[in-house]
Amino acid sequence: MPLENNMQTPNHFVGLCGVLNQGMGGVTMIYILLGFLGYLKYGELTEDNITYNLPQHEIAPQIANIAIGIAVFCTFGLQFFVCLEIVWNGVKDNFVKKPKFYEYIVRTVIVTAAVGLAVAVPTIGPFLGLIGAFCFSLLGLIFPVLIEFVTYWDVGFGPGNWRVWKNILVLIFGVLALVFGTQTSIGDIMRAYMPPDSDLPVAIINGTLGLAGNASLPSNGTAFTAR
């Protein structure tokens, strides 16, 4: 919405051939193509970033890494604009004097936080899985269902209340995706930062979510069972 509101012709943002569909459609096709070809080539050995599978001593992979760096540098401002617009609109009333100065401070803080997160979490794959599972379930499934319930509450849900049954199915699927996707992602994060032979992630996840199953953990030479 911030991008649409700042366009010269906002009505061109949506629609079948709008800016949103054209841009996201092209990006989606590129992601699908790279994911398919990468997995077709490397199979189960495919890394979170496909460039990690490429031989780094060759010129072509080095050019690819440079191109990725340039792409991030050139597109970070566009992606950053939405975050800045939301944050700055929420705090700008507190900085009536010298608004530009404080806006640059907000920009610096957000950029520093993003860079600090990237440095602190070099293994970003599991965290992206957690963000995807959490945000996809809430923003893509659960929240739209709740919004549709509120929207059609006074006008009705159609013949046989078909929207109610449809939303119930979507809501169940969203909750399952949220629970099990988050569980799997947290387990992957813990395994990424613990010794490979440790069973602690499995035990903690099973114990936290109350899932059935046993995990025997060595503790000072004594094995115990977590449920």
UniProtKB/TrEMBL annotation:
It holds the Pfam family Aa_trans. PANTHER family: AMINO ACID TRANSPORTER, PROTON-COUPLED AMINO ACID TRANSPORTER-LIKE PROTEIN PATHETIC. One of its GO terms (molecular function) is L-amino acid transmembrane transporter activity. Residues 2-186 form the Amino acid transporter transmembrane domain. The chain crosses the membrane at residues 12-39, 59-84, 104-121, 127-147, 168-186. This is Proton-coupled amino acid transporter-like protein pathetic. GO terms for cellular component: vacuolar membrane. It is a multi-pass membrane protein. It is found in: Membrane. Keywords: Membrane, Transmembrane, Transmembrane helix. It comes from Diaphorina citri (Asian citrus psyllid). The keyword Ribosomal protein does not apply. The keyword Repeat does not apply.
